[in-house]
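Memo to structure team: turn this sequence into structure tokens by end of day. - J.P.
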Amino acid sequence: MRNVLHGCIAGLTLMLVVGLVQAAQGILKDDHPQQYRVRQGDNLWSIGGLFLENPWQWPQVWHNNSDIENPHLIFPGDTVSLINIDGQQRLTITARGDASRTIKLSPKVRSTPLDSAIPAIPLEKINSFLRNNRILEVGKELETAPYVIATHQDQVISGTGDQIYARGEFKNGYEDAYGIYRRGDPVFDPDSGEVLGVIAQEIGAVKVRKITGDIATLKVTGSREEIRIGDRLLPSEERRLAPVFYPKEPEAVVSGRILGVDSGVTSIGKFNNVLINLGVRDGMKEGDVLAIYRQLKIVDKIRKEEIRLPAERVGLLMVYRPFDKISYAIVMEAHQPLKIGDMIKNP
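Reply from structure team:
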């Protein structure tokens, strides 16, 4: 009986090991390299695409090498290798390149900053878009925020270097910086009709010089457009994306749609920034990858009725900034031109 039991356990163990290896092999590309030396301009998505069938499955095969400083960060010059650990194929850093080494400069020691690590996605494709836009809840922040009431010497419009005046409640003291925003159109859910938020476009930035009652004297420190009376002020927020987050599958089962796209274009392609009707309340987090589906509507000429064809997968996007009810995402793959209204689901 004991031999039978031992035999069963050994058999189950063997099956588990074989299953894990097969699972890893199913994730890995057939023609994957054994090593890759990271170059400037790489990102986790592009490196993942060299080794994996689906780049967002990176976390399932990544192994943090405890002998490497900051093993979760990858720098240009590092060597990423495919190794076997306890019968499983794993990706890990096997050598650090010059870009991540500590450089001794007497009498000080200076280390390469963490933001030199490669990002998850090409951040240059989204940073300018992210700086210029902000999602706000309707009836809250923007409507109750301080507003521009006058410009220096009663100018019609103002720009960088000008002095302007705003009225409202300034809670944070004299030294705080504010962004100047102009309200855009509200964003509606295409299926439920719910108002998901309003896009506030950043016009410029100001610094508080003094506050008298509810009137603030401000200096314009930067402007992208002419500042007008009625523009709103919101406390500046640090929105620079950390490079250290990984593409991954969402934790929850979700379904939504593409709501809009930057630049006012109608045909969406790779690296376009899009707005989707899924947010924090739906479980969205930075790095979540979603598949994009197209479901065409046609007329059955025989039965004279309108029908929908089966949904076809046409691309992938990754969430990089979730808000409460909506999120900004970047299109990572597009097998054909995408459109507003296309469906998004777990990959």
